[in-house]
Fold these 3 entries.
Entry 1:
Amino acid sequence: MKQIKKNIEMVRSFNAIKAVEDGKYFELITDETSGLIPVEYRNIFLKTGYFETLENDASKLTFCKNDQSFKENAITEVIEALIEADLIPRANVPRVQYRNIGGKERLTKPEFVINRAYDGNWGFPLDGVVILAYKINEEANKPEFLLQKRSSKVVFGNSYDFTAGGAIIAPQTVDVALKAQMKDEMGLEVTDAKFSESLSYSYPRPTKTKQVMRLDQRVYTAEIDDTNPVYHNFEVDGYEWADAETILDYIREEKFAASHVPAIIATLDKLGMLPEFANKAETLTQLETQGLRNKTSSNKVSTGLKPRQ
């Protein structure tokens, strides 16, 4: 419980703009996007010969060449240099997967790709998808939502979370990623998932390597007939059916995965499940003051980090 509270506080207090202003991170500017890198890595980036200071702002770095192969080679070389310097650990993964990096069209037209195992070390905007499955409790005449219990083996472990979700791996489409996550984590099929909304927000992973995750999270909901999940993924320790009020209690008690608090609140609000509670306004205001939810209609948390003009 202490670790969960510590993680939540870290997510609440993180502000990307302030992190750059305070000199803790520097920006890596590309043609279509920007990364957020711990300042301790800056000299190593420059020593590789693949990066240079931005012409109009020496505090920022960019690639020496605007070429996809060059950028991907640069990323491989600097990761190896960071590992050699003991600044990040070598990832122990069974196979290499990639994530698309770039502007708004990156899922179909990436500027370049990066190894998923090291995605948090770059602070680039990344694509993710989550789903909240539910069934109707006919006796109570209200939906009950299927929450997964995150394993202690993963980041933000020992907490409740969406039914399933995770990274969109190149060259997956959103739909393919959604179905794959649900099948892999909970052993369930998704046949009629409905898009809820997209949320963009940033948070630091609770790791020693100061990884910053900047997520463009696509949120889906689905009513399911199969109410007997088979969780066989190492990321999942179990599941629980919970109504909206119970989920809100888990958030207040800091038992819900900190990285997904903005998305779960927004999803319940979109489904019309919050208005029945007298404390709806209090709940949303609390999230806004914590910096986990923006006060704009888009529900986006601005990072202030922009691609090269």
Entry 2:
Amino acid sequence: MIRLKTKLIGGKGGVGKTTIASSIAIYHALKGLKTLVISTDPAHSLADCLDQEIGSEIVPVRKIKNLWALEIDSEKATQEYGNLLVQQGFDQSSIFSQFLGGDDISSLTPPGADETVAFLKLLEFIENPLEYEVIIYDTAPTGHTLKLLSLPELTSNWLFKIAMLRQKLSSTLGGIKKIFGGGGKNVNTADMKQSIDVLRKRIESAREHLQNHEETEFIPITIPTLMSIWETERLLQALRQYGISAKTIIVNQVNPENDKCDFCKLKHKQHNSIIDQLKDLYSDEYRIHTIEMFKDEIRGIDNLIEFNSKISSIFENN
């Protein structure tokens, strides 16, 4: 059976995550692997980077065989999260929903719907490994990414609390219903428990996939500034906490050497100093690769293929 490979690309905003995620996806697709690149970033930079329209449905990437793309849509994410609630028995006709006084069940959706739907998509792909061989996640800035990494545990706990609350309220409101009459659907506790158990097992399967170092790798992207390095350290600590593998750190937007420009020489020296600090901190544990700044904006497949030579050298040397 084909084992799904997942690579999560993350870091501070503005470090070039989308460009690198797109290029990594192209690298794997050109190797003949069925590859999907997913953006969980609400900014929807992936469509701009690939220079084609991408939405909440998977579409093939132009000019590249074996590559597809998807952007998680916030509004649709909320709807899908609402559908998840309905699956657990929170439909519009239930006495629980009537008690809450809302016709829109998605009003129960907690913050983090984008990340949760991205996580639920991962569940689908784990359960259908023949569909794609490699999935590249272009994650939102670090704070959102940390939320995504914690979702296996948070979602499991959330489902349990929802089930318990529903059971208690259904019992209480059932008594009120007998006194005052009224419609509403009776609770089938056995069905509810079964659906919760099924979803719990799916979540556990995703957790195992994320923590399997042969199947999942997180690639932190940083730039040679102290603030970005500090953000990278916070991200690495979270990865250790959640047991997710990180082997490579990519330092992007490094100023190239230019003896004819005093400002360029100064920036090059500053960047090298920070990269040396990064190597002192992490070179024993991680492979550290640098990518020099390009003079032009990297947008569209042709530019990404040119940029891909930098990415290829990273993976070929690993």
Entry 3:
Amino acid sequence: MAAASGSRGADSSSSTAAFMETYSKLKKELLEDHTSEITDESSLQLIHRMVDYNVLGGKCNRGLSVVDSYKILKGVDVLSHEDAFLACTLGWCIEWLQGYLLVHDDIMDNSQTRRGKPCWFRVPQEVFRAVSTRVRGTTN
């Protein structure tokens, strides 16, 4: 089994492509969630930018390891479409959590950059939008 050998094997590019495709689906679901209290377009655009800025750009080793672990636990080299989506979704949960933790780490450490870009809290227009959106939301 390729996943058990410590490498992703020949299907690495297809696994990565499926993983990235799942990201797009999950983000779309998040932004189109009709049960969310966040409905104004400027807030949705902020979430879109924030998630892309803080989650994408890494190697996705944690998330892809979740997919590999899922294969090992299932005892298969290739997952069904449904299992692949579930495994990728779990992997993205880890990646999104990591993005969240990195933002907090950057703030606590007063970092300047992350992955070659200014830290999220140092992007002036984004900080202003986040604060003003939150203030508007609590005063309505």
